[in-house]
Design goal:
Length: 499
Amino acid sequence: MSNLKKLAGETVWYGASSIFARFLYYLLTPYLTYKLTGPGYGEMSLVYAAIPFLNTVFLYGIETAYFRYIQKDEHKNDIYNTANVSIITSTLVFTILLIAFNKQFAHLISIKEHPEYITLSAFIIGCDTLSALPFAKLRQENRPRKFAVIRVLGILANMSTVYFFLSVCPSMQAKNPNSIWLILYNKDFSVGYVLVAGLVQSVLTLLLVSKEWLAFKWHFNFALWKDVMIYSLPLTVAGFAGMINETFDRIMLGWWAPAASEAAAHAEVGTYSACYKLSILITLFIQAFRMGAEPFFFKQSVHEGAQRTYARVMKFFVITITVMFLVVALYLDIWKEFIQNKKMWAGLKVVPILLFANMFLGIYYNLSIWYRLSRKTAPGAYITLIGAAITLLVNYLFIPRFSYMACAWATFLCYGSMMAISYFWGQKVYRIPYATKKLVAYMAIVAMLYFIHHLLTGIWKGNLFSLSLATFFTVAYCLFILKTERKEFQKLPYIRKLV
């Protein structure tokens, strides 16, 4: 129980920082959907769909490798030094290449008129890459407080810069059209200012982790590096394929959307991206969980009864995300107000699909422990490549006809397939006693509650009825879980008295 308590504590810290920071950034959604009119929000979404791909290439799985090799006494003194030397050298090379070929890359992601966006992105990715290992060091050393403060400060700097350029500058320029504000602000560069804000955040973050970053020595263990590359490159392939599953649908939508012009296609991308953000509650929890779980899973693997611990973690994880599904899906009439451009509300029908897809992704991450604990990380690459193939095929076949609805269902099928494959494969290699039938039942119940709510609110209109029914279903489900899992909850401190 102490292990679970420790994981919960670290997840709270990482989660509190990630959720608070991302929620602050989430608050920019109504602001940006209001400020970036026309194709602007879509152009921004295309750039931020491409950045994760480049992040994966720049990092090439070295974070996970660091967690793996730091556990071994013979590598503790060399792994941080070797990994930093490797990442600094490669980041310099990749950044120069990206800037040199910015026009070609801009054309590839359907923003050929703005290669400067790619140049700004190159510097953002470079700074983020250099910050990655210092952040991993903080996580490994169980220092979530510093991790949290830096994350939040970075987001606050981002938000302040966005507001300065998109609100303060145009306002001052309107009052003093011939002043310095004319130089500071160009209304046609609005997406660029969002990227400038991202660069400010990345530079500030790198400065704040400079103590950890500069703690390494310029020492390179080639034999260790070679071993790390063998371990991490399959994870890189899996990560790249994972980005196809996570963000490439926006780029494909920009290519193949059934729109009359490029601007109209960008508007479709903007609608889908804005509605995708309404699934952020589950996404944030998964991210926070991963921050705490990755080092925890590796440390727990050397203890007796690790499989039982993993099974219990999975149970509480599924319970949490099913409740989150109800909170978002049943109260969608409230969440949609975060999108200020009401034309984008046409895409709200993708939200429940994407919520379930992200539930599958979170479960898949839990299941992936069976191959992450071994040096055979290739299965992760194979599974993710299968998911990527499903994403590409479904989007290629159906985007020209169904637009962003095809993207949503492709994501659902992709993550669902990855979850199923990892479960059946993993149980043969490293059996973990998951309460599979019960967990599947929980997911089926929340899906049923959503459909009943959708059906009844379609017959009896009105916000009051919709919200009342949503509250009844959510509370009823929580009480059902408390009763069903009474023995499990009684083992937890602070909850014992409630059940």
